[in-house]
Amino acid sequence: METRSLGDTGHESSVLTFGAIALNWLEQDGADQMVELLLDRGVNHFDVAPTYGDAELKLGPKLRQHREDIFLGCKTQARDYDGARRKLERSLDRLGVETIDLYQVHGLEYDEELDTITGEDGALEAFRDARDEGLIDHIGLTSHGNPQLILDAMNRIDDLETVMFPLNPVVVGKDGEDHDYEAVLERADEQNVGTLGIKAFAEGPWPPTDELPEADRPYANWYEPVDTPAEIEERFDFAAAQGLTSVVSPGDPKLVAMVLDAARRYDGMDESAQRSLVERLRHDESPVPEQLHH
Amino acid sequence: MDVPETVTTALEDRPVAGATCLEAGAGVGNTTAGLLDAGARRVYAVTNDADHARTVRERVGPGGPDESDRAALLEADLRDLPLADDSVDVITAHGLFNVLPPESLDAVASELTRVAESDCHLVVDDYAPLPDDAEMRDLFSVEDAATELADGRPALTFYPPAALRRLFAGYGWVFDRRRTLLDPVPWTESHVEAHAEVARSAAERLPDELGGPLCEEADRLVESIGEESVGEMYSVAMRLAEE
Predict the structure, then answer these.
(1) Minimal Cα distance from B181: which residue of A?
(2) Nearest to A173 among B2, B182, B198 (CB)
(3) Residue A138 forms part of a structural domain
(4) How many CB pairs below 8 Å do chains A and B form together?
(5) Half-sphere CA count of B208, side-chain side, radius 13 A
(6) What is d(CA B38, CA B45) in angstroms, rounded to the nearest whole number?
(7) Which of B3, B5, B55 lies at the smallest CB-CB distance from A275?
(8) What is d(CA A195, CA A242) in angstroms, rounded to the nearest whole number?
(9) How far apart are CA B157 and CA B144, in angstroms?
(10) What's residue A288's pLDDT?
(11) Contact (CB<8Å) A278/B233
(12) Closest Cα to residue B83, out of B117, B107, B120, B56?
């Protein structure tokens, strides 16, 4: 599988990152097999979080067995020093490892949070102390919030080495600052910050729960995913062709094998085919009957 | 409103900033919006379709999503433009030519050339003829048959890029570059339905024994096609040779 430099971290990440939330939906044997499959196919970057049910615990055994082969990303939603420190120690304990390669501020959404994180007794101080102690190696940030907030965070956090954010053809097709994740990608490239793409396989929101109760959804993802090999492949190709370091796999284990297959076969995507995908989804989302043209 | 990537891609290597522009065949104003975004000094959006004129007027008018005092909507025939000779720096025809029947081509090319400044840029974006095995091609055939019978002219004609290059070469335009905007072209369910609707409404103006089978075939094709990604949308850029 193709690998790409993860910013200045010195790590060469596989173009597919495993979103380990998928392990939460498997029994331990299945989780072990999933990790073996991923490693066998060349995936070397895993991403987990304490909020993903049992995922940390289920990742633990195989992670410990193959610790040298896995670049491990983890994250915390704690915004203050003590909370972040506690969460980090808990994750290390649940995973059963000495260090986490990449520790990320998880799910940044509001300006005030950024103030807290970067301020005195904020989470970043805890991250930096942990880095000095050797508990983590690199600092990152994840967000599906406003791109302008992510750009602001990149300005304010000098030692930020990776950013994780949504990128898919629907987002690329939308103009305006609120959807301008391409600006994040551009800035990250300028600053040599590693980029991890999420929501690459999102088709759209689930129908309202009165139409489709949560318990009746066929996938564990919190959005409705594309789920045919052809769609998975074009979505993977699109995300990888935007220039992300790595594309994060969707959260449902049923989709992982298809995504792995697409990632292994990835060999670029013509720009005209990328535009074709953007154009198709632009019309799907907002059909304008009187507009016959692209 | 979002400017389609087809438009931004076609315009990105053209000198639009500060230019006086003409969008020939304004549609719903996507290219007008793209020209405004790219810094056009002035955009004349021309259409002879009353619905499109209203849509574009609302879009760029006061309170519209792309409100601009740099845009003007002209409801006019492209064969007779209310613009002075040598007055336009950039002309766009995005998805225009496929709705022009062959007999209009010369008059339109001649009129666009008249209003073009020497050294004017022209961008023609359109669909290449669809491959023989495309189901969309069958739907366009039904649409064209119905409109030809009802109105005496086809709804659509897909010109190969070389044909339009040669047309404009005859008026002094020099080929600059060609790009592929879409490959394949995504004909979504809403496109399929919209084209079927054009076919049906023309067929309804025909005697039953003629219109009935055309409607049925349009319905069948909508069902059968669903959506289809096929064909190419191209962009050809030309420049008017200086006199």
Answers:
(1) A272
(2) B2
(3) yes
(4) 87
(5) 0
(6) 15
(7) B5
(8) 11
(9) 8
(10) 44
(11) no
(12) B117
Instruction: Name the minimum distance, in Å, from the CA of A176 to any CA of chain B.
Output: 8
Asked whether residue A159 is assigned to any structural domain, the reply reads: yes
CATH code of the domain containing A173: 3.20.20.100
Q: Cβ–Cβ of A283/B188 closer than 8 Å?
A: yes
Task: Evaluate whether residue A259 is within a structural domain.
Answer: yes
Query: Which segments within B29-166 are labelled E, that is strand?
Result: 42-47, 71-75, 88-94, 116-127
Asked, for residue A290, whether it belongs to a domain, the answer is: no
Domain count, chain A: 1
ipTM above 0.85, yes or no: no
Q: Which residues contact B28 (CB under 8 A, 6 or more apart)?
A: A288, A290, A291, B52, B55, B56, B59
A229-288, pLDDT tens digit by residue? 999 999 999 999 999 999 999 999 999 999 999 999 999 999 999 999 999 988 665 444
Q: Containing domain of residue A277, as a range?
A: 3-282
Cβ atoms of B137 and B131 closer than 8 Å: yes
Q: Are residues A275 and B6, on separate chains, in Cβ contact within 8 Å? A: yes
Q: What does the pLDDT look like over B82-127, one tens digit per residue?
A: 999 999 999 999 999 999 999 999 999 999 999 999 999 999 999 9
User: CA–CA separation, A120 vs A41, rounded Å?
Assistant: 43
Q: Which among A172, A276, A291 is the nearest to B186, CB-wise?
A: A276
The three-state secondary structure class of A28 is helix
Nearest CA in chain B to A276: B182
Query: Cβ of B229 and A280 within 8 Å?
Result: yes
Q: Chain A neighbours among B 21-40 (CB < 8 Å)? A: 27-28, 30, 37
CA distance A121 to B61: 51
